[in-house]
Structure formats: C-alpha cells, structure tokens
Amino acid sequence: MEYQEKFFTTFxxxxxxxxxxxxxxxxxKTLEEGLVDWKTDFFDFFHKQIKAHREKxxxxxxxxxxxxxxxxxxxxxxxxxxDKETFSDKQxxxxxxxxxxxxxxxxxITLTWTITYILHNPDVQKKLHEELDRVVGxxxxxxxxxxxxxxxxxxxxxxxxxxxxxxxxxxxHCTSRDTVLNGYQVPKxxxxxxxxxxxMLDEEVFPDPYKFNPDRFIDENxxxxxxxxxxPFSVGKRQCLGEGLASMELFLLxxxxxxxxxxxxxxxxxxxxxxxxxxxxxxxxxxAKLIRRHVQIDGLFVKNYFE
Length: 307
Prior knowledge:
The protein is about 45% helix and about 10% strand. By secondary structure, the chain is mostly helical. It has one domain: CATH 1.10.630.10. Helix 5 packs across helix 9 and helix 6 (about 120-135) runs antiparallel to helix 7 (about 150-165). Keywords: Heme, Iron, Metal-binding, Monooxygenase, Oxidoreductase. This is Unspecific monooxygenase.
C-alpha cells in the first residue's frame, strides 16, 4: 500500500499517464518500470500466501472460509478431471491483485476520508451516535440487516462519496465503433472518459459541494433521499463490478467503528482536508483519540456516561 501511494501519486507517474509522448523528458523510473516492480512485489507476496493457504486448509471439506480456499478446492477438482489450465495459481494471483488494487485501496481511502470528515464535523458525529443509540442501543455488532434503519449513517456515507470524489479523473476507454452522442460525431477509437467528478461537484445538484453536509441526502420526513446522479462507482456497462461488496464493507466498517467509539482530535489537531498536494486522492493519515461509548459492567455492556 505504501509503495502504491508513493509511486502512483508522483507528478512523474501522472505526467506519463496523461502525456505519455513527453514522459522521456522527466528523469527517473518510467511508468512501465514502476508497474513491473509493483507487480513483482505483489505476486511474490501472493504466491507465498497461496502456498501457505494450500498447506493449511482441508481441501476435501465442503465449507470454505474465504475466496482463496474456495478457489483452491475448485482447482483440485478440475485437476482431478484433467484440467490443469483454467484454475491456475497464476490466475488466482491475478484475481488477488484485482481485489487488492480495485477493492482494498479504494475502500481504505474512502474509509479514512469518512473518519476525517466526521472528525471535522462533531455535530455529524453527535447525530450518528443519537441514531445508533436509538436503533442499535448497545455494543453489539451491526449487520447489513440494520442498514435500512440507519438512515443518517447511510447519508453520511453518501456524502463521503460525494466529497471524497475518489476518482477525479476517471479511467480511460475508447469507442469501439463510430457513434453519435447528443448530435456530436464520435469516430471509432476515440478516447473517452466518463468524467463523474463534474457531476459530483455540480452546484446545481449538490449546492456548496465542498461542504460536508449529509443532510442533503435526508428528505423532509427524515428518510434517506435517493439522488440518482450520485455515481462514485462510475456509470454505464463499465461501472465498478465491486459496488455491492464495497458499499456493504464501508457501511459495516463505519457503522461499527462509530458505534463503538467517540472520535476526538488528538493533540496534533485535526487531519488535513487539503487534496491539492496530490494528483490523485490518497488515504488520510488520521491520529485521533478514541473513547469507548459502552463499558462492561457485570458482563453487560452499558453506555459510558463519562465519555
């Protein structure tokens, strides 16, 4: 993660991505060299993990604890049937890389920014705790079944997506055929970008878009308001395949963390909201004081009134 943050956020790397013809003008490691080093380190790590996983699990059991275990069991079944190609270790490593790059880093970035925004807005944290006390009421683990009742929690996560604007410059695609868009001729092989950040920061849709305001997603009845143009996972056929998983993970992580702790700034002050120093959005380094909201007395968790 540290290498990913450092290498992919440098000016040289982003200059090579957007102006590849002139990349040779800037000294240092090329984008291709950086990607090779990055992939090599990751694949070495994944190969070791796969080997350790294979030695640890029971390949003959019907239950699987995770994706890799299920994959390795299917691999064994296919090898037994004479198929040694489709479920290879190399393919599993590639799948792990996809999950890591597209799933772990994006979720961790959004999570750290969400905590940062909550720290900067104590009134938001107060409303979250009031809702959690009303709906959950104790220290139990929050599950996805609680999601429909935690309206304000969902609004905070939606507002985090809008303010974080995780992909300020979306992924590049090209047209597969000649087409017409709103009267404009777009030839085949034209580079196109679904520039969702222009929507996320559109003041007609999100007034004062740089202000963290979860109430914009709450209607007059206190219910979560669906805003169709909120599209943090992009749009169209190429939108993020992991949207459902990422949304579930983010809800569970934020809801359980905020339910368990009251978050206060540490002596160093609040984490920065400045994004101008990086070309891409990177995780916030958050140093904060955590106070348990519930304490255990005689085996029961009760609210900590001394927080």
